[in-house]
Amino acid sequence: MELPWTEKYRPKTLDEIVGQKPIVERLKAYVASKSIPHLLFSGPAGVGKTTAAICITKAFFGGIREDFLELNASDERGIDVVRSKIKDFARTRSMSGDFKIIFLDESDSLTSDAQNALRRTMEQYTTSCRFILSCNYSSKIIEPIQSRCAVFRFTRLSKADVIEYLERILKSEKVKYDKGGLEAIMYVSEGDMRRAVNLLQSAATYGIVNEEGVYKITSRAKPEDIRLLLELALSGKFMDARNLLDNLMLTVGLSGEDILLQMNREALNIEADDKTKVKIIDLVGEANFTLVEGANERIQLEALIARLALLN
Predict the structure, then answer these.
(1) pLDDT for residue 218
(2) Which of 155, 173, 199, 293 has the fewest Cβ atoms nearer than 10 Å?
(3) Is 43 left (phi over 0), alpha (psi -120 to 50) or beta?
(4) 150 near 33, Cβ under 8 Å?
(5) Residues 283-310: pLDDT tens digits?
(6) Residue 151, number of CB atoms within 10 A of its CB
(7) Which helix (H) or strand (E) holds 40?
(8) Could you tell me which residues come within 8 angstroms of residue 36 by beta carbon, excluding any fewer than 6 positions away?
(9) Which domains does the chain have, with CATH numbers?
């Protein structure tokens, strides 16, 4: 069975990682020196944190898995994991080098007790083991752990990097595409490479990757439809805006939260003064709060476009 494209085209070496050039250069310097400190990778999803960690272990140990332990802290997040699995692995010596590597993915999910126990383990076994921690929010990692690590902050990938990588996959898979399709994937993925590749593979099932196919498989409206909705509401055309809202919710199948997220994003791209844009974002935030509290999404979205119609 063929692998998903996210795994099939996952970079195998540090040189293949897209974007993050300053980080890659520093990591390559560690590999060249044959030694690394404890590392903390922080940043949004799908930007190469896990891939970088795996590439480092391959550079040090090749295919030997006995010296590499990978744990997902969102599944194994308690203090018992640190006291048993991690400590037992760390206390034994490496089979192929000077140290072992323990990779804790999503380490910001570790409980406070588990992080404090991990801090002590990092102190005790520094000579025989190195830790690589990845997280979305470094602020959720306790300061004593952060101070023991070299911190690398991964950023969202640029549009050029994502599109270049997607085009490479499309040419390898011999799939037809157009620029509109890649632009749509970039809009939906927002710099998340993993999500972009998943969307690409799903869109490729239509035979050609184009804008229509991409929006058909995602819970997103075309940005121009959201901008039109805002413009109709602001110009006082309430019924036209309401009809478009009905189409997005009933025909396209978008949820109220999906629409609000896109309205918040597209509010900055419409023809309006800054004061109006501020009011739009404020009203969208208020509507989102009411949805989170359990209000009826249809009523709240209609109330939102009514408030927008009253702005001018």
Answers:
(1) 84
(2) 293
(3) left
(4) no
(5) 999 999 999 998 999 999 999 999 999 9
(6) 14
(7) strand 38-42
(8) 30, 56, 60, 130
(9) 5-153 (3.40.50.300), 159-217 (1.10.8.60), 223-311 (1.20.272.10)
